[in-house]
Amino acid sequence: MTLAEVQKEVASWDAGAQRKLMAFLSALAFQQEGVDAAELSRRAKDQDPDKWVTLEEARKRLSTQR
């Protein structure tokens, strides 16, 4: 399956399924970057808005990693 085929398939999914895929891909990216589960959990629980990023910023950051 090509990337274009995967993108077309994912675009047809409902929002819930797309969110699950995004969570999986985020966890995979953290794993590949060497971020362990404890660190990921700590980041997810961080309540400091100064450390948060918008969805648009996350997209920009991920697009520059390709």
Question: Any overview of this molecule?
Answer:
The protein is globular. It is mainly alpha-helical. Helices cover 68% and strands 0% of the residues.
Topology:
Blueprint: H1 3-11, H2 15-32, H3 37-45, H4 55-63
Give a quick account of the main beta sheet: strands, pairing sense, barrel closure.
none
Spatial separation of the terminal alpha carbons: 19 Å
Tally of domains: 1
The total of beta strands comes to 0
Number of helices: 4
Order of helices and strands: HHHH
**Strand residue percentage:** under 5%
The portion of residues assigned to helices is 55-70%
Stretches with pLDDT under 50, minimum 5 residues: none
Question: Helix/strand-derived class?
Answer: mainly alpha
Radius of gyration based on Cα positions: 14 Å
Let me know the average pLDDT. Answer: 87
Shape: globular
Short summary:
This protein is mostly helical. It is 68% helix and 0% strand.
What labels describe this entry?
66 residues; single chain; 4 helices; globular; mainly alpha; 0% strand
